[in-house]
Amino acid sequence: MTIRALAMPWAIPGDRVYSTPRDVLVTMSLGEDPSHIPSLYDVRRGHAKAESSIDGGPVDRIVDELAGGFKVTRVHSSAASINSSGKRHLGFNAAEQACGLARTFLLRVPTGSPTGRIAQTLSQLPTVRSASPNYVAVTPFNIEPHPSAFVDPHGEDALKPRELIHATEALHFEPGDPAVLVGLVDSGVAPNHPEIANKLRSGYDTVQMDESSVGDGVKLLGDHGHFDRSPTDHFVGHGMGCVGIIGGLGIRMPRGLAGLAQIIPLRALAAAKVPGQDHVIGLGAIADLDAAVKLAVDLGAKVINMSFGTDDTALSPSSPKPHADVVRYAIDHGCILVAASGNNGKETKYWPAGYEGVIAVGACDNQGQPTTFSTRGEHVALCAPGQRVLSCGLTGYSYVTGTSFAAPFVAAAAALLVARGERRSCPVDAALAREALGQSTRPFTDKSQSGCGTGVLDALAALKSLDMMIDQLVADDHGRMEDG
User: What is the DSSP letter of 313?
Assistant: First the structure.
C-alpha cells in the first residue's frame, strides 16, 4: 500500500511514502478560515478559479519564499452546498468546522518546490493546525481474471469463502434493506456489469491527478483529473472486486453479503503503471481519498468500505497521520467505517485502519487461518476471507486476493446489522456493530495466532448476537417502566 522505490527529492526527510511533487495539504487552526477560497470541485468544473493567497500574511510569505508562488483550493465542499455550483465553499456547519474539513486546503506549487520543507515550516505557525505532503496510498492486490464461461458459481473455490462465514444463512436470516447505503471508496466500478445492475447510486469521481502529480516512471491511465459524478473504472478492477463481495446479485457468483443494500461508488484511486510492476495499480492521493469519504458521509452512507492505507512506519516522525479529520467526521455522523489492515504481513498500523473507531480487517484463507500477508496488530478487530475469493471483474469475473477484499465482507456484514437494527427499531452505530461482529467470530484454526483480532467473521452469528443485545435492551426498558 506504499510506493517506496521512487526518488522524492521534494519530500520530508525520512518519509518513505510517496507524495505528489507539487502539492501541500494545509489545515488552518480553528477560527482561521479564509472564506474566499473556492472548493476544488468548483475549480475543476470551471465554476471558480483557484486563489493565489490564503491569509495575506505568514502562510503566503513562507510559501512564496520557498516556492515562488502557489495556487490554492479548498479540498472539501460543504454538505449544505454540495449541489450549488460555484458556492460549494459556503455554508460549512459546526461539525465540518470542528473536524477541520472546512479549513483544509490544497496548495499547488511550481515543479521543483520543496513540498516537504514547506509543510514542516508551515506546521510551526500558530495559525496552522497541520501541514503535510499530499501522500499517495497504493492498492496492491492480486486479481486473476476468469471469463464467465469458465467460472463455476457452485464450485468449491466460489462457495468456500462464503460458507466459512455463513453468508447464505445470514442472508436468509436478514435479507438487508435497500435504504441502507454502503459507501465504497475505491478505484470506481464498471456500472454496466450485470452483477451490480440496479445496485448503484450515482456516486462521484474525486481523482485529481495529472502528470505533474507523479514522479518519473509513473504513467497515469484514463481519466485522472476531472472531479465529476462518473465513478467509472476502465483499468484497475480493484473496486469491482470489492463491490461484488458487497452487492453482487448472484448471477454467476455467490450473492453479495450486504443483500438488498445499495452502494455509493466513490472513485478516489487513479489507474497507473509504476516501474517494476506489470499490472495496473490504484493510486489515491490523500486529498482525493478524504474528499471521497466526506462525500460518502454527506450522501448518506451508513457503512463505508476503505480498502486502502498508508503504512505508519513509512512516515517520518514529524508527519501527521493521514485521514484523521475525515475519520472523525464520519464517526461523528454515525458511520460504520471498515478498513483493510494492510498486506505486508508485519505487525504495524496502516491509516485509516489504525484509528480508534475504525474496524480494521485482516485476511484469512478458506480454512480460517490468517494469511501470511495480512498486517497484524492489536488494532485489528477480526479477519475475513481474503485469498482467491470469486468476485466481479471489470468484465466477467475474477479471483481476488488481499485484505482489500476481506474488508468488504465485514462492511457487508455491518450493512446487514444496520438493516436488522432498523427492522427492530434499534439504530446500530459503529460501537454496537463492532461489538456484535467481534464477540461472534469463530476461533482461528491455529489458536496461537496473535494480532489478527478475535477470529473469523461469522455473519449469521453476528446477526444473532445483535438480536440478543436488542432483546436485552428491550427487557431493560420494560423493567425500568415497571419500576417506574
Answer: G
Residue type for position 66:
L
Q: Classify residue 280 as left (phi > 0), alpha (psi -120 to 50) or beta.
A: beta
* CATH fold of 140-470: Rossmann fold (3.40.50)
E strands, 60-206, are 71-74, 104-108, 128-139, 142-146, 181-186, 204-205
| Sequence spans of domains, the chain | 19-134, 140-470
User: Which residue blocks in 265-366 are alpha helix, DSSP H?
Assistant: 286-298, 324-332
* CB 263, CB 244: distance < 8 Å: no
pLDDT digits (tens, 9 = 90+) for 449-475: 899 999 999 999 999 999 999 999 888
Of 277, 274, 309, 280, residue with least CA distance to 7: 274
From the CB of residue 72, how many other CB atoms can be counted at a distance below 10 Å?
Answer: 24
Grid coordinates representing 172 are: 436468509
How many C-beta atoms lie closer than 10 Å to residue 424's C-beta?
Answer: 15
Closest to 453 in 3D by CA, of 389, 333, 322, 358: 358
What are the backbone angles phi and psi of residue 120, rounded to the nearest 5°? -65, -40
Phi and psi at 78, nearest 5°, equal: -75, 145
Torsion of CA 361, 362, 365, 366, to 10 degrees: -20
* Contact of 39 with 77, CB cutoff 8 Å: yes
Q: Are strands 19-28 and 397-401 parallel, antiparallel or unpaired?
A: unpaired
State the residue for C-alpha cell 495496473: 280
Buried-exposed string 383-402: b where 16+ CB fall within 10 A, e elsewhere: bbbbbbbbbbbbebbbbbbb
Q: Is residue 3 very low, low, confident or very high in pLDDT (cuts 50, 70, 90)?
A: very low
Short-list 337, 321, 340, CA closest to 329: 337
Least confident of 42-46, 131-135, 295-299, 315-319: 315-319
Distance from chain centroid for Cα 222: 21
Secondary structure (3-state) at 296: helix
> Helix or strand or coil: residue 152?
coil
Cell of 220: 497515469
Question: Comparing C-alpha atoms, which of 289, 367, 306, 318 is closest to residue 342?
Answer: 306
Buried-state track 219-247, b at ≥16 Cβ within 10 A, e below 16:
ebeebbeebeeebbbebbbbbbbbbbbbb
Q: Residue 316: how many CB atoms within 10 A of its CB?
A: 16
What is the arrangement of strands in the sheet containing 262-267, beginning at the earlier edge strand? 204-205, 262-267, 181-186, 303-306, 336-340, 358-364, 380-385
CA distance 121 to 124: 6
What is residue 6's predicted lDDT score, i.e. its pLDDT?
Answer: 60
Q: Give the rounded distance of the alpha carbon of 29 from its chain centre.
A: 25
Q: Which residues pair with 326 in a beta bridge?
A: none
Considering only CA atoms, which of 339, 336, 328 is closest in space to residue 102?
328
